[in-house]
Amino acid sequence: MCGFAGLLTARGWNEDAITDWVGRMIAPIHHRGPDSSGTWADAEAGIGLGFRRLAIIDLSENGHQPMTSATGRFVIVFNGEVYNHGQLRRELAACGHRFRGHSDSEVILPAFEEWGIEASTRRFIGMFAIAVWDRTERTLSLIRDRLGIKPVVVYARPGLVTFGSELKSLIRGPDFDRTVDPAAVSSYLRYLYVPAPQTVFQHAIKLLPGHILTIRSAAEPLPEPVPYWSAIDAADRGLAEPFGGTEAEAVDELERLLMDAVGLRMQADVPLGALLSGGIDSSTVVALMQKQATRPVRTYSIGFDHSEHNEAWHAARVAAYLGTDHAELHVDGDTALAVVPKLAAFADEPFADPSQIPTLLVCELARREVTVALSGDGGDELFAGYNRYVHGRRLMARVRAVPRGVRRLIATGIGTLQADRWDQAGRLISPFLPATARHRLLGQKVHKLKHTLQLDTEFEVYRSLVSAWQDPGEILLAKSDRDSRFESLLRSLERFEVLDRMMLVDQMTYLPDELLTKVDQMSMAVSLEARVPILDHRVVEFSWKLPQSAKLNDTTTKWALRQVLFRHVPREMIERPKVGFSVPLVDWLRGPLRGWAEDLLSSRRLKESGQFDVNGVSNAWQRFLRGESQRALPLWTILMYQQWQHAWNASA
Q1: Residue 96 CB neighbours (<10 A)
Q2: Of 39, 32, 74, 77, which Cα lies nearest the Cα of 55?
Q3: For a tag on the chain, would you pick the N or C end, based on fewer CB atoms within 10 A?
Q4: What is the mean pLDDT of residues 257-279?
Q5: H/E element holding 77?
Q6: Phi and psi of 301, rounded to 5°?
Q7: Residue 432 has what pLDDT?
Q8: How many separate helices (H) and strands (E) can be counted in the chain?
Q9: Cβ-contact 83, 76 below 8 angstroms
Q10: Does the pLDDT value for residue 182 go beyond 60?
Q11: Homologous superfamily of domain range 2-229
Q12: How sure is the predictor about 459, in pLDDT bands with cuts at 50, 70 and 90?
């Protein structure tokens, strides 16, 4: 795991100028690679590459980058891991290629020589972002892994292209225009993140997962990236050619694939562990790790001082049963207060998933002892783990079946009770309900249901379910009706059944742009490599071959994944309502974070940002403080934007 940056220019700069700019661009990503750095430049071609290394496999100089192929044709910088490098090394050695060390980076170059760039990329199993300069064809290729685990951002102006692992490198590069895209801000307020390929800046883009961008000249507009793998194609193939075995055989095959995926990701020449929440996904990963380990796996979890958000004791039970070497950290509001001001420095764009706080803290905890940690991310998107899949499918059926007037009457009825009263009612009846029927933040969910019942299409319903602000225009000065990729995909994939469509859109947007961005940024902030075995592309492709009942079986989510886990951990340790990696945001904003929030939401600060309607935001904040609203998350989006804009000196 590392970081890179570079540029391609048609402006006739000499080698010193290119090297100087590249050095400036890799300076702010020291956290991605504290072990060493390197630069390479070719003034005649106008190309420069820079690299920061976090040494994981082959700690010697043989893994140093930028790296040049044996023939001198290809020069690469590479962030991530190609886990099947051992098998590829054997194939390439049989073709006559020779190796000095045992790093995976060293395998990529002869693969490009032997099979070409796209064909080689299709062979790679792993997470990777690669920039490769072909000295023969005089082309720059930027490559992103299939699921978007590793980031690539690109900025283009006449005569100049800059690229890298983080926007902060591009900002430090030449001629960066910090003008904010109003459409990106609107999407961010709705979804908590800026959907790719947009970035928050008008002239910068994110390379989409599974794509290669090949640039021949910095003097020409950026060409369209070309896909080498597509989640839509994987879904189409899987649904057209479903798994033909029994349920038990399907679970066997899933376990086999996961066991191999986990085993490949246990390769490291540095200490390795796992992030364990005690939920289905991370518990499965840790169970399969421990099955293949020769000593107790090191595991790490985070807990909160609010019992309804605290899953640390579940993680501790699972760790004790599996026999891992377990450590945990408990977090209170004061700890959160200390972390929050740092978030904008770690996030390139406004980013409002509050679980970035515990993610950062658990990564800090793990980094005290290990350099690599496996996590359970991806299980929800592949195996229908979110409550919105359960309730969304039912809601969409009711949207079609129940007349609009009746739905509006129901919405009016449930909306007469304020959110905090619904929460009180939920706490009163919770002891009398089965565990799977209990819900945290009941008032917030009921009021979202109120809005959703008034909608008329499946598109509107699902967008509502994933929206923080139902209408960002109500608090923005600059309105935008431009669709993000999320909306475009949701509209264009109507041929898929409702559940499949929800999961597929999430796999292509929410997963890379929010979840994996969070994991990458928070782990890299502390120089920890996070690996996500459930998102091995072979597991993703197999998941689409499974029937929906293997994912969402009545109201049981992640059915097949649960069956794998129950072979290693007793069912009673796992069966409980989904909590997720959440934080007590309502209590924090009304308590230890209130002073920080009120400063950012002051009339002066809001006017300075140039983005928000001061009265609209102030009214929402006062309603929240009075308990009339539990909508902490929409307010959090504004707070995170305000903090980000101040930190990055962005212009509205």
Answers
A1: 8
A2: 32
A3: C
A4: 97
A5: strand 74-82
A6: -145, 165
A7: 47
A8: 30, 17
A9: no
A10: yes
A11: Aminohydrolase, N-terminal nucleophile (Ntn) domain (3.60.20.10)
A12: confident
Q: Tokens 């993703």 identify what position?
A: 540
The 10s digit of each residue's pLDDT in 284-331 is 999 999 999 999 999 999 987 755 555 788 899 999 999 999 999 988
pLDDT at 631: 87
Burial 455-486 (b: 16+ CB within 10 A, else e): beebebbbbbbbbbbeebbebbeeebeeebbb
Per the structure block, which two tokens stand in for 348? 């390139």
Buried b (16+ CB within 10 A) or exposed e, 621-644: bebbeeeebbbbbbbbbbbbbbbb
Q: What's the pLDDT tens digit per position in 474-504?
A: 999 988 878 899 999 999 999 999 999 999 9
The H or E element containing residue 303 is strand 298-304
259: nearest Cα among 541, 533, 571, 531 = 533
- Give the DSSP per-residue string, 608-644: HHTSB-HHHHHHHHHHHHTTS---HHHHHHHHHHHHH
- CATH for 232-383+509-573 is 3.40.50.620
Task: Work out the pLDDT band at 448, boundaries 50, 70, 90.
Answer: low
Provide the 8-state DSSP code for 512. I
Cα 389 from Cα 534, distance rounded (Å): 19
Return the residue matching tokens 């976090």.
54
Cis peptide before 66 (omega within 30 of 0): yes
Domain boundaries, the chain: 2-229, 232-383+509-573
* CB neighbour list of residue 536: distance below 8 Å, 6 or more residues apart: 125, 257, 258, 260, 261, 264
